[in-house]
Amino acid sequence: MVDRREKLQQLLDGELDPSEIISDPTLASLAERIYGMDIKVLLAEKGIEVPSDDSPSTSLIEVIPSSILPPPGPLGPLPALEQTTAGSRNTLFILLGVLAISVALLNLVMGLGELYNPCTTNWCADNSKFIWLAPHQLTQDGGWGSVGAAGIPDYAMIGGGLVLTLLGLRKKA
After folding, report:
1. Looking at the whole model, is its pTM more than 0.85?
2. What are the beta bridge partners of residue 130?
3. Pick from 94, 128, 124: which is nearest to 108 by CA?
4. What is the pLDDT of residues 151-162, one digit of tens each?
């Protein structure tokens, strides 16, 4: 192994004799890849006789013997797929959309705090609209706002509900 490393280092340094390169197919292959020239042609030009070795080198390539297994046969007919109706999917989209719109509008008009408000401060008693971006402040003043004041999250929830409802109502071709 050390001898191969020394030869490789000599090849990279340019100190290796061309006859040694051609005698080792691994070094010849590396020299062709590194220097980008055909080693056999170069050696023939210099007058060095190239041994005719028609067998491919197996020093760098692992040859896997062919298997004795027969080739795979045809798969046969595939089982028929169940035809699912889009009705269940459409119904789910419609229900989720209507629910999102209903909850968003209820929060805007009446406030979800009228139904359930775990906050006990005076601010929460007067402001019963749930702030959608502050679910972590449900028991504090920051989770509740004044009824009727719509914000971007309210519009986004109404818009998302409309999109879900329209997706459920559209007909597929």
Report:
1. no
2. 144
3. 128
4. 999 999 999 999
